Amino acid sequence: MPATRDLIGRGWRFPLGVDTRGGIALVEGDDEIREAILMIVRTRRGGRPMRPEFGCQVWDLLFAPNDVSTWAMAGEYVRQALGWWEPRIDVDEVRAFPDPDDPAIMQIEVDYTIRSTHDERSLVFPFYLIPGEERR
After folding, report:
1. pLDDT by residue (tens digit) across 81-111?
2. HSE-up of 54 (CA within 13 Å, CB side)?
3. Three-state DSSP state, 87
4. Local confidence band at 131 (pLDDT 50, 70, 90 cut-offs)
5. What span, in angstroms and rounded, lies between the C-alpha atoms of 48 and 40?
6. CA neighbor of 77 nearest in space, from 54, 93, 59
7. What is the CATH number of domain 4-128?
8. Are 2 and 19 within 8 A, CB to CB?
9. What is the C-alpha separation between 77 and 105, in angstroms, rounded?
10. Distances from the Cα of 136 to the Cαs of 77, 133, in angstroms?
């Protein structure tokens, strides 16, 4: 049976850094997939000139109110981006909800299964909304 590293792969650690021998720090296995998910979601679509379709449309919600419609759109945008850009996982569920301590933060939780190992994982990350003027 192949090692998990062979099934999932290896990649550069982000943010970029050096390892103990002075080479580029790498990640592998589950950590590599986790970092890939975060890179996809943290990249605004159109943010990479040579790959304008890469990234996640969730950044379109930067000035949206922290409410149920924004949470639903965020969940759908994250699900679409991961479905398109991360073929090593099945996205089981994406939930967005307000941070109980800060009204300007929307927490996004992604439940996913690694296809090659059938391991179920969950990842929660904050998305910072910029409060706008109240509509009257």
Report:
1. 999 999 999 999 999 999 999 989 999 999 9
2. 13
3. coil
4. confident
5. 11
6. 59
7. 3.10.450.40
8. no
9. 17
10. 28, 9
Separation between Cα atoms, residue 14 and residue 40, nearest integer Å = 12
Tokens (6 digits) for 14 = 């982000």
Q: Output the pTM of the full model.
A: 0.82
Q: State which amino acid sits at residue 102.
A: D
Q: What is the CA radius of gyration of the chain?
A: 17
Query: Who contacts 23 (Cβ-Cβ below 8 Å, separation ≥6)?
Result: none
Residue 9, helix vs strand vs coil: coil
| 129 closest CA partner among 89, 98, 86 | 98
- CA–CA gap between residue 23 and residue 84 (Å, rounded): 31
- Looking at the DSSP bridge assignments, the partners of residue 10 are 28
Cβ neighbours of residue 85 closer than 8 Å, sequence gap 6 or more: 40, 54
Label the pairing between strands 120-128 and 102-114.
Answer: antiparallel
Q: 71 is written with which tokens?
A: 């949470």
| Residue whose C-alpha is closest to residue 30's, from 9, 50, 46 | 9
